[in-house]
Design a protein that fits this description.
Elements: H1 10-18, H2 21-31, H3 37-44, H4 48-60, E1 64-69, E2 77-82, H5 84-88, H6 90-103, E3 127-128, E4 134-135
Antiparallel strand pairs: 1-2, 3-4
């Protein structure tokens, strides 16, 4: 398991857990319903040792949890399911997808459409204030605190 940066920057700490391409693809597969090692492996085509290491990291940091299961006549195995912390990463995944669709468009169009369930109304990732109002990114102020790396 990689070492998490001892850094006041939450982005640096988060990347210590999530910062590899394979990790976000594992999360994409989990959101799509994969939970078994074999499903992740076939969906991603990564080496078993790499997949094991990334899944162990996600479990160690509370993004996924291992749940035992046993097929009839088989040995016990584990499935990997998203925790609340893992499900909260959906907004991050969809923000990456939204950015990629806009700035790196695929010739055949997007692979997934984001819609309000049961409707055709599009959904996008954005900033929302405490009253539930969308805030344009140009109006979001980033205010360094005493813990900010730029203040040290």
């Amino acid at each position: 398991m990689g070492k998490i940066p001892n850094d006041s920057c939450a982005i640096a700490r988060s990347l210590g857990v999530l910062g590899e391409r394979c990790t976000f693809l594992i999360l994409r597969e989990a959101v799509a319903g994969s939970s078994r090692f074999s499903e992740f492996r076939s969906g991603l085509g990564v080496a078993p040792d790499v997949l094991t290491e990334r899944l162990n990291t996600l479990v160690a940091y509370g993004v996924m949890e291992k749940v035992p299961y046993r097929e009839p006549g088989e040995r016990a195995r584990f499935s990997y399911v998203l925790t609340d912390a893992g499900r909260e990463l959906l907004v991050v995944l969809l923000a990456l997808q939204q950015w990629g669709d806009k700035h790196l468009p695929w010739p055949d169009g997007p692979s997934i459409l984001r819609r309000v369930e049961g409707t055709e109304r599009p959904v996008h990732v954005g900033f929302i204030d405490d009253d539930g109002n969308e805030v344009d990114e140009s109006s979001v102020a980033l205010i360094p605190t005493a813990a900010s790396p730029s203040r040290k």
